[in-house]
Write a structure and sequence with these properties.
The chain is mainly beta and about 150 residues long. The N and C termini lie far apart (about 45 Å). Strands 1, 2, 3, 4, 5, 6, 7, 8 and 9 form a 9-stranded antiparallel β-sheet that branches. About 15% of the residues lie in helices and about 40% in strands. The protein is globular. The longest helix has 16 residues.
């Protein structure tokens, strides 16, 4: 047979986007940390936060983070240095994102994050809106998965 059947062609097209684009729920299953930049619209104020989701699949549709840490300096540059954030639980997370983190392809590993309990590998995200609150929108700059 020289020509594939129509069903074979259609099934190939259906599978291709999942292979090429990746499944967002798979890449964020399990514990997930986000390095995020937010915009408070009424004050035109930009600031940065770290978010913890005990199950990253619960971060794909605008859900509020399980725990939030406000960067003490307000807006931070995540790349090229160390950023430490202390959650209200007393746990401190430290991120180390390479200086060219925003220049690499989406979903590429760009650094690490750790606390007293475990290490995470961090990846460049697509700056999608992670969640919104009254006059606030927070975008995911990097996501970090349990190493």
């Amino acid at each position: 047979m020289l020509y594939p059947s129509l069903s074979m062609v259609l099934s190939s097209i259906t599978i291709l986007p999942a292979v090429v684009l990746g499944n967002p729920l798979v890449k964020r299953s399990g514990e997930t940390m986000y390095l995020s930049n937010c915009n408070r619209f009424e004050a035109a104020k930009l600031y940065s936060e770290m978010y913890y989701y005990s199950n990253g699949a619960n971060s794909q549709n605008g859900q509020t983070p399980y725990s939030t840490c406000y960067a003490s300096s307000g807006y931070v540059n995540w790349e090229g240095g160390e950023v430490i954030c202390h959650f209200s639980s007393g746990v401190a997370f430290t991120s180390h994102i390479q200086s060219n983190g925003q220049s690499v392809a989406l979903n590429t590993e760009t650094g690490t994050e750790n606390n007293d309990y475990r290490a995470f590998n961090c990846f460049r995200d697509n700056q999608k809106t992670l969640y919104t609150a009254t006059r606030i929108a927070c975008k995911s700059i990097y996501y970090c998965l349990d190493a």
